[in-house]
Amino acid sequence: MSKLCLSTYLSVLKIYENPQGSGARKILNALVESICDKQYNIPAYEISKIKNGDKNIAGYIMDDIKESISNPRYLENAKTRVFPLLNPSKHSDISKTLAIIAMHDDSINNDCVIDCFSGIKKKDITEIKNEFEFILGIFLYIISSTQNQHTQSYAAEITDQYCNEAIKTYDSLEIKTTTVEIIMDSDISSQAKSFCRAYEDSINLLPLCQIANIISPSHNHVNKMYSAYCDCSDKLKAQIMKDNNCPIIHVSDVYSLYKLLARYEDDIENLGLASKHNIYMFTQYIAPAINVEEFETIESMELIDPNPPIFPVVPSHILPNYTSSHLSKFIGDYIYYKGTDKELPVPFDWMWNHFNFATCEYADLFRWLNTFIISSYHEIKQPSEIDTELYESPIIPEIYYVKTMEDLHFLAMLTLYSLYSCL
């Protein structure tokens, strides 16, 4: 049984609730609502049993949470729902106490990620950068990875005195590691520079290393820079990205990344870029997590022209001079002329017929699906919906730097992340 569980978590947050008194019931309801984007009213008697370690959270609520666990709006929702319920001056104390509970939990492996926002592992608990995000990230770990029933003895330990001792313990850990970290930071900086020199020829694709690390961290990648990056320590990875002004990507797992495909399909259908009966192709065929064997046979394919022209059959009386175009221009022109007497064919439907997606080789289908995502980026992206103070958009390499099918796919996944993980 895990000591870092919902009962101990709620007990800590209850001790550090806002001075007006929030209560465990409001806090838990707010956390669940932040993930699931809908209101809950878990009864007081249920909350009491959960906080005391007598039972797990109700099954129907857990089903909702599992379905929404990768909700990109979780953080923003929590800022309005959870933040007001906690004492704003005690976020540091909360995070330190939770970190020490995790440190003393023998059921958690040292390499286990306990903060699903920043990727902090148990062995790195002195590296908390944002206390509120850590509090939210550790809740995601608890709710998805631990059982709460029969944790009464752990819940009973959480008192004001326990929390005070935990904070002292955490502070002593920080003091012990400071001197060592100064030496290590200097070494990390030189290693990051060496990495960038070693892979200078591929450095324009550096942002894709993070996607490789999410999708297949142990894979022998075609681009050796990806494999080398996956083998780096978390600190070195962060330093490499920092030196190249690349924002860190926050995705908990590969499935969270591929779930964004469903949102993309909704958008291209709403924009009229594809008919409803065709858009299933993206979720069915694009994910190597689903088509591992097929992807491994084509990932090393070289793309002489990663963005080849397409030749739409446009009636001459509509656009007499429209004889060839790259896909991004074709999509942009379709949006521009939509509803006029010069309206172009629906882009994805036209490609379906022109390239015979129903019977073509998997490599051709995979290539065009990924290219379509990249090419439609500017038509789907809505800058007005993004709070630039809270979200730092990833650097997206230009498609002409792409050399292999592997590069192309990682670029498409980074495009998806940029489109949706900020909203």
Keywords:
423 residues, mainly alpha, 3 domains, 54% helix, globular
Characterise the protein shown here.
By secondary structure, this protein is mainly α. The chain has 20 helices and no strands. It folds into three domains: 6-158, no CATH class; 175-243, no CATH class; 254-420, no CATH class. Helix 2 (24-36) packs antiparallel against helix 5 (74-81) and helix 6 (91-103) packs across helix 7. The model is unreliable at 176-184 and 383-392 (pLDDT under 50).
Outline of this structure?
54% of the residues lie in helices and 0% in strands. By secondary structure, it is an all-alpha fold.
Protein topology:
Blueprint: H1 6-15, H2 24-36, H3 44-51, H4 59-68, H5 74-81, H6 91-103, H7 131-145, H8 152-157, H9 160-198, H10 208-215, H11 224-230, H12 234-243, H13 254-270, H14 280-285, H15 292-298, H16 327-337, H17 347-354, H18 362-375, H19 377-380, H20 405-420
Helix pairs in contact: 1-6, 2-5, 6-7, 6-9, 9-12, 10-11, 10-20, 13-20, 16-18, 18-20
* Class derived from helix and strand content: mainly alpha
* Shape, principal axes of CA atoms: globular
Radius of gyration: 25 Å
What is the number of strand segments? 0
Number of domains: 3
Cα end-to-end separation = 36 Å
Helical segment count = 20
User: What is the typical, i.e. mean, pLDDT?
Assistant: 84
Residues in helices, as a percent range: 40-55%
Instruction: Give the low-confidence spans.
Output: 176-184, 383-392
**Strand composition percent:** under 5%
Order of helix and strand elements from N to C terminus: HHHHHHHHHHHHHHHHHHHH
Major pleated sheet: none
